[in-house]
Every structure is written in C-alpha cells, then in structure tokens.
Amino acid sequence: MADPFTWDAALLRRYDTHGPRYSSYPTIYSFSDDFDEQAYQAALARSNADGRPLSLYVHIPFCRKACHYCACNKIATKNAKVVEPYISRLDREMVLIRPHLDTRREVAQLHWGGGTPSFLSLDQMSDLIDRLDARFGLSNSRHRDYAIEIDPREADVFTLRHLQALGFNRLSLGVQDLDPRVQRAINRIQPRILTEALLDEADRLGFRSLNLDLIYGLPLQTRDSFAATLEQVIAMAPARISVFNYAHMPERFTAQRHIRAEDLPGPEEKLAILRTTIAMLTGAGYVHIGMDHFARSNDSLAIAQREGTLQRNFQGYSSHAQCDLVGLGVSAISCVDDVYAQNHINLADYEAALDASHLPTARGIRLTFDDRIRRHAIEQLMCDMKLDLDELSETFGIDAPRYLEDALERLETPQRDGLVLIEGHRVVATPLGRLLIRHLAMAFDARLPLKPDDRFSRIV
C-alpha cells in the first residue's frame, strides 16, 4: 500500500496541538452573551439587501441511546412524546424569524442534524417539512442541496422513500466503525447489513450523494482493524466519506466517561490509522478534500474545490457558497450577514424564550473588518488548501501581505518544516501540511489564546 506523499510521523506528532476546527471564525469561544435577539433581528434584516440564497439548519436533539464517543448537543430518550412539543417550538421560532427575512430568497440548502433526525416518525418529518415550506418556501430546483443525517439502526427502505418524497436528495449515515468489538466499546451495535441495505436502496432511488461517517481513535481500534472497516466501506462505494478524529474529553462530555482511556489507541497507533486511511481512500479514487472529508472526483464537493467555490460551515464542507445560514432549534448557530448567533443550548431555556415570544438567541458576535479579512483567509486555506493574497487585497481593498504580516511571520517555522510553501503572494499547503491545515489556519487567528487549551480538540 503506497503512501500518497512522504510521511513524517515525528513532525505530525510535534504539530499535534490543540486547535479550533474553524467551522466559524471567530470561533464560538469569542461569542458574547451581550449579543441578543435584537442584534440577530437586525442582521436578518440587513441580509435582505444582498438577497443571497438561504441555507436552513434544523437541529433535532433527540436520540434513543447515547453513544459513548458523542460530543453533540443531544438528549437521550426513548419517549417519542417529546417530539411534538419540539416541532411546535421550531415552528414558533420560524414565525418569529420570518418578518425579518425576505422569504422570496431561495432556500438552496437544507440540513437536518442532531441528535438523530430519524428519531422523528414519518408523519412528523412530513409535518416539519410542511412547516418549513409554509414559513420559508422550499426549493424544487434540481440544484438544491437537501440533506439529513440518518441512523441506520432506526431507518429502513420506507424511511428513504419517504425522505425522497419530501425533497431530500442527500443522506449522511453514521457508521463510525464496523468492528463488533469497537461497536460494543462505544455502545453502538450496528451490523454492517443495516448500512448496506440503506446504501443500496438510496442508490436505487437516485439520491444525489451519500456520505458515511467514520471515526478514528476509538477504543480497541488498531490500524489493521480500521483497515478492515475501510475495505468494507470502500466496497459500498459512497460518494463521500467523513473520517473524524475522536477527541477524548471526558471532563466535558459525560458520555465519554464510559470509555476507558487505556483502551484508546496510543499516539503512534492513531497516526498509523490515519496514514492507512489516507492511503486506502486515495488509492480507491477518493479525493482528500481536507481535514476529515473525502469525496469521489465527480462529487459536488470535489468539483466545488476544483472550481474554488467550496465553503466551510458548522456542518462541515459545503458546495453551496454564499448562502446566509439560519439555524433553527436548540443550540443551533446562524451565520447571517456579518453576524454569528447561537440559540440557547439548554432545552428548557430554548423553550422558555419561545413561549415568551422571543427568539431564543443566547449569544453571538458581529464581525469587525479585521474578523472578516481573517475569516476569508482562514476559509480559503481550509477549503482550497491555499491562499491568494492578491485576491484578498482586491476583495477588501487592503495590502494583504502587509496587513497579515503577523500571520506570515507565524508561518515561517511551518514553512521551514515543509508544511507550507509561500510563493510570492500565494500560500500553499504541502501534502503533509494539508493534514495540519488547522495549525496553518491558526496563524491567521487574532483571537486565539497564546496557548490554545483543551477546549479545542487535538489537530491529528
């Protein structure tokens, strides 16, 4: 099995520090509690002037059983009665947002995440889609990107047919690992046949893109066991594969306290798993988009990266650039105009705000001019694996090399180590640097603590 580039484990370990994932810049740790619903309403109103398409994210926090690795905002319950009141609150949130939005704007993107959106019954899924359509007007365009996260343990072929009828054209299935020993260790028993059956049906129904989520660094994993999982996943031939780095932070996430630290692969084994993953997936024809994401060369993510239109948001990489993101539901984050706004992360607080006819905005931030420049630079690096400083100068009316002199100085050591090339006014990540793209992006982060702490996950 040939490596796609020269591997330097010692260098990767040296740069394996804590750092943001940059699903936003500034990161959520810069959000302020002083940011309120009036500030969010003003941003929604300002966004109408640009008339950009809308992206709607709906957070469904419920799941029937907590997986031990999970770090999502979730509520583990078997009580299906919690759904109807929650859908009513979601509708109330839509009603309060709608007066501030020009709803003639196309909803080009829709994403249901969680938790587990497939916790909803088919009738409840229909009800929620109807409410979204009534409030915002959903799109019938063949270019729309309507995605939902699915737990193969809960969905079946009838679920997929129903989702297709509702307008969804992309699916993301949680797998994590196909090794039964690992599944038992993470409290997620999921026989391979469940995933295969859904993939076969989704392919038959003509869903545009299928994504499988995997996690490396889980308890009892080895390079050989994960290679066996990858062989099976490659045989299923999904269009996209996400391979996330497990961040063990039991002090922050209660569920992770069920995982024994001694069962986790050590640093060398974890790097070997990553090396195996990249070699096997690129060898099978997948393009390494960046960080955790791989896609077939004809998938919209790979095409967007080639065309320079790839975008990064709270759901990962997106092929739909230049949308205003409106987040609905507990803990959901919106990115509208020059503002990030996050809803209450506690369900009771979220409900109380809506019951009092207030938007459930808990915190947020309005970006400064400096923030917008650095966000653009970081997003270009994270998406394109390169940064054109001349384009940045033209976009913002600045002398970018001079303005970002501090960042370029911080890149001098990574440049000497062969992680980045600075050619004239172009910054280009090398193949090894792409694995450490978060570290390279940190050079442009003016809000980062001098020593990033364990609020952030490790980079590799």
TrEMBL record:
One of its GO terms (biological process) is protoporphyrinogen IX biosynthetic process. SMART domains: Elp3. Monomer. S-adenosyl-L-methionine 2 binds at Y69, C70, A71, G115, T116, Q176, R188, D213, A247. The keyword S-adenosyl-L-methionine applies. GO terms for molecular function: 4 iron, 4 sulfur cluster binding; coproporphyrinogen dehydrogenase activity; coproporphyrinogen oxidase activity; metal ion binding. PANTHER family: COPROPORPHYRINIGEN III OXIDASE, OXYGEN-INDEPENDENT COPROPORPHYRINOGEN III OXIDASE. This is Coproporphyrinogen-III oxidase. Binds 1 [4Fe-4S] cluster. The cluster is coordinated with 3 cysteines and an exchangeable S-adenosyl-L-methionine. It comes from Billgrantia tianxiuensis. Involved in the heme biosynthesis. Catalyzes the anaerobic oxidative decarboxylation of propionate groups of rings A and B of coproporphyrinogen III to yield the vinyl groups in protoporphyrinogen IX. The keyword Disulfide bond does not apply.
